[in-house]
Amino acid sequence: SKRLTIRDIAAMRRRGEAVAMLTAYDATMAALVDMSGADMILIGDSLGNVVLGHETTLPVTLDDMIRHAAAVKRGSQRALLVCDLPFGAVIDPDTTLVNAMRVLKETGVEAVKIEGGLAMVPLVEKLVNHGIAVVAHVGLTPQHVHQMGGYYIHGKDETSAARLRAEALALEGAGAFAIVLECVTPALAAEITQSLTIPTIGIGSGKDCAGQVLVINDLIGLNITPPPSFAKPRADVASVIRTAVGEYVAETKAKRGPVPLVLRAD
Ligand code: KIV
Ligand code: NA
Hints:
Blueprint: H1 6-14, E1 19-23, H2 27-35, E2 40-43, H3 47-50, H4 62-75, E3 80-84, H5 93-107, E4 111-115, H6 121-129, E5 133-139, H7 145-148, H8 158-174, E6 178-182, H9 186-195, E7 200-203, E8 211-214, H10 216-220, H11 237-253
Parallel strand pairs: 1-2, 1-8, 2-3, 3-4, 4-5, 5-6, 6-7, 7-8
Helix pairs in contact: 2-4, 4-5, 5-6, 6-8
The protein binds 3-methyl-2-oxobutanoic acid and sodium ion.
3-methyl-2-oxobutanoic acid binds near residues 84 and 182.
Subcellular location: Cytoplasm
Main location: cytoplasm
Subunit structure: Homodecamer; pentamer of dimers.
């Protein structure tokens, strides 16, 4: 097939080619992201915020993830697909394996992503031993927002930095084929990137990771609240939509088109 595999991702890392990853949650956006050259598409549990209107990612269910991942699979052709395991689907190795198997069997994605540090090592090992490709995710892990006491930069002090170094090495050792570093200080993210063989995929962690990931809505300005400061939107799709809808509403009320479709009876 034309789809990238984890061996292609490993080869990119070896030759120093950056991995470009974005989220998508539906077939149309997946098709656009895919045809624009993204190497990996993440069906992120950020869909809880972006699509479902929740305040955090905690309410997102495995069924939510499966529905959206299946749509992204149908819309895309080339990118390697990674589906987040949501909060509550990652408990012990056995439960996590059953849930990851459901995602793979019901959606056709190639990999799952698991948020968390050392506690996730036996879970990642279990999945990898059963033939599942896993992306790890450390630093700011939004599923743990209440336990962490908010959203903030990680790795600032030596205790936090030492823990992140250990987590990254252990998760690579457990068999993860890539690791997301979210809101990790750029210097530490660069250091961790150098210390690993697998690619680090950064978000809000500076330019020296082996790849980058962003929520697609934050990249294209499809938001009603300001995006995170690291996002640097490349477009303002929200105003494109508001202008188009505003014109449509005005034209409709003025009875000037759009012209209704009339089926001729002859
Ligand atoms: O859910 C998500 O979109 C993510 C990325 C921001 C890494 O986990
Ligand atoms: Na996520």
